[in-house]
Amino acid sequence: MANATATAGDADAAAQRGARPAPGGAAAPAAAPAPLTGSALVLGTLALSLATFMNVLDTSIANVSIPAISGDLGVSPDQGTWVITSFGVANAISLPLTGWLTQRYGQVRLFTWSVLLFVLASLLCGLAPSIEMLIFFRVIQGAVAGPMIPLSQALLLSSYPKAKAGTALALWAMTTLVAPVVGPLLGGWITDNIAWPWIFYINVPIGLMAAFVTWMIYRSRESATRKLPIDTVGLALLVVWVGALQVMLDTGKDAAWFSSTQIVVLALVAVVGFTLFVIWELTDDHPVVDLRLFQRRNFWTSTIAMSLGYGTFFGNVVLLPLWLQQYMGYTATDAGLILAPVGVLAIILSPVIGRTLHKVDPRYFATGSFLVLALVLYMRSKFNTNADTFTLLLPTVIQGAAMAMFFIPLVTLSLTGIAPDRIPSASGVFNFTRITAGSFGTSIATTFWDRRATLHHAQLTENITAYSHNANAALGNLASGGLTHEQSLGSLNRIIDQQAFMMSADDIFLVSAVIFLALIGVVWLARPPRASAGGDAGAAASAAH
Predict the structure, then answer these.
(1) Pair 12, 72 in one domain
(2) What is the pLDDT of residue 16?
(3) Alpha-carbon separation of residue 213 from 115, 158, 191, 228, 501 (angstroms)
């Protein structure tokens, strides 16, 4: 077997530290292969970047397509959001397995198979005849996507000399910043001009090309493999409690929450599963999630800040296009145009933040990010049904500055003081909590959006009586347009619905702004990082994305 890369090989070994080699002994660590040069370097970088781009793209491309998917498959938009949350949960659960799978099968083989299986799952998503089958295939897609991003980065770092590691990471990071910009635009255009299944079909040619080129270039640079124990009980408990909690959040509204036996059972399973998971992971020799990391102040403070912040952010990212399309009359393309500018300032400012981070306390950057996000969400809380394009776009553009200061500073704080051999494990836990929180945030935001809209609708209709002058005047205007009394009442109800859901969205935006302000206090519970702390840039970037 070919030699492993120094960076990725050390990371993989650390991810499974303490594991016993298979009978016969494990292979001794080998020297890193020489960096790639010429066309091999260019093609390798392109292939790995395309795979990363494809993966990140699928976290945002479906956001603006949810109304179309829901309508085509005959379900409500709330049920349609399962297409997003199912991918995120499966992706988060599979992340902790990356280290074990890499040791078992090798970096190159695992990455290539992950890409090919991702392509197959994408094809099946496009062919799905029902929402149940689409969600099932999205779960598979998210699960096989887990190893792709950390391994693409490890392979890319092995392709460049150590002196150019920063360049390699910059090229890699650009794909993760561009994809969220392109996702809503591309998803909206495809949905409006072709058909929503093509948001998944476009992965097929990209993925096949990335897998083919990667295998041709990197197969001779495969990492060493060995058999290692896996925490099957911990993994099973992880799947049980995360899955039960996510299903509870997704179905609670339709099932009338805790008046439903199903929701009560799911809640009990989630609580019991989580309790057993914590106990098992704290006592197992090879935990799938190293919970002892939470003994470190900087790790738990930054992880809480990232999880709550990302969950709040992602819930709003899903909510905004739903509101625009369902109650503001926007097409999927137009909704994508409103969301896309978030990446402009992020792409411009991220390199600046990266170059100055070692000179500035990252808590200042995180504070700036939360302040900007609070401002953005406060601006959105003032939206009304007459909001023009400029009013809708301005907060999105400003939000890009916050995103540039959001990820890397919190990652830096989380890795402060952690020994190098624990950094891969810390990155895995950090990523797991972030992605899981994003899925939970989506379900919570859409649930409260509906509940608050019901409340506002009831309040607005209190004055719609036979004795209300304004109501009678509105009905008279509608009747003068040729509508019957029943049609006039239906039209008035739709107007009230539009106002109710707008007011509900404003409530969620305002509460989200308050959450970001509160998270500033959490960030400052962390200790200032020392210059030598925080691990290497590769681990930080991996945790961030």
Answers:
(1) yes
(2) 39
(3) 12, 16, 30, 29, 48
pLDDT digits (tens, 9 = 90+) for 453-491: 999 988 888 877 766 777 777 777 777 777 777 777 778
Orientation of helix 537-544 relative to helix 423-461, angle to 10°: 30
Question: In which residue ranges of the chain is pLDDT below 70?
Answer: 1-32, 165-167, 169-171, 173-174, 176-177, 180-181, 420-421, 423-424, 466-467, 530-545
The first and second tokens of residue 327, run together, are: 């109650």
| Helix, strand, coil percent values for the chain (each to nearest 5) | 75, 0, 25
Q: Is the domain of 224 the same as that of 238?
A: no
Are 361 and 213 found together in one domain?
Answer: no
- Rounded to the nearest angstrom, the gap between the alpha carbon of residue 294 and the centroid of all alpha carbons in its chain is 22
- Kindly compute the dihedral angle of the four CA atoms of residues 428, 431, 435, 437, in this order, to the nearest 10 degrees: 100
pLDDT, residue 4, reads: 35
Whether residue 319 contacts residue 449, with contact meaning beta carbons closer than 8 Å, is answered with yes
Residue where one domain finishes, among candidates 189, 214, 230: 230
Alpha helices in 33-106 (DSSP H): 38-57, 66-73, 77-80, 82-94, 98-105
One domain, residues 58 and 181:
yes
User: Does 328 lie in the same domain as 472?
Assistant: yes
Residues 138 and 224 in one domain: yes
- pTM exceeding the 0.70 threshold for the entire prediction: yes
Identify the CATH number of the domain in which residue 361 sits.
1.20.1250.20
Quickly tell me which residue has 């935001």 as its tokens: 445
Token pair, residue 108, equals 């190159």
Q: Which residues touch 9 (CB under 8 Å, ≥6 apart)?
A: 29, 30, 32, 223, 224
Structure tokens given for 66: 């949810």
The total number of structural domains in the chain stands at: 3
Q: What is the pLDDT of residue 156?
A: 83
Q: Is 534 left (phi over 0), alpha (psi -120 to 50) or beta?
A: left
Tell me: do 245 and 191 sit in the same domain. Answer: no
User: What does the radius of gyration of the chain's CA atoms come to, in whole angstroms?
Assistant: 24
Domain boundary residue, one of 183, 204, 230: 230
DSSP label at 484?
Answer: -
Measured at the CA of 81, the angle between CA 76 and CA 84, to 5 degrees, comes to: 155
Domain span holding position 347:
290-545
In degrees, rounded to 5, the angle at the alpha carbon of residue 397 between the alpha carbons of residues 394 and 398 is: 85
Of 368, 5, 362, 299, nearest in space to 153 by CA: 5
Q: 254 by DSSP, 3-state: which?
A: coil
Say how far apart CA 369 and CA 77 lie, in whole Å. Answer: 31
pLDDT at site 312:
94
For helices 6-15 and 537-544, what crossing angle results, to 10°? 60
Q: Give dist(CA 109, CA 92) in Å, integer.
A: 21
Q: How far apart are alpha carbons 262 and 241 in whole angstroms?
A: 15
CA atoms within 13 A on the CB side of 126: 19
Q: Which of 246, 214, 224 is nearest to 148 (CA)?
A: 214
> Cα–Cα distance between 415 and 535 in angstroms, integer?
6
246 and 165 assigned to the same domain: no
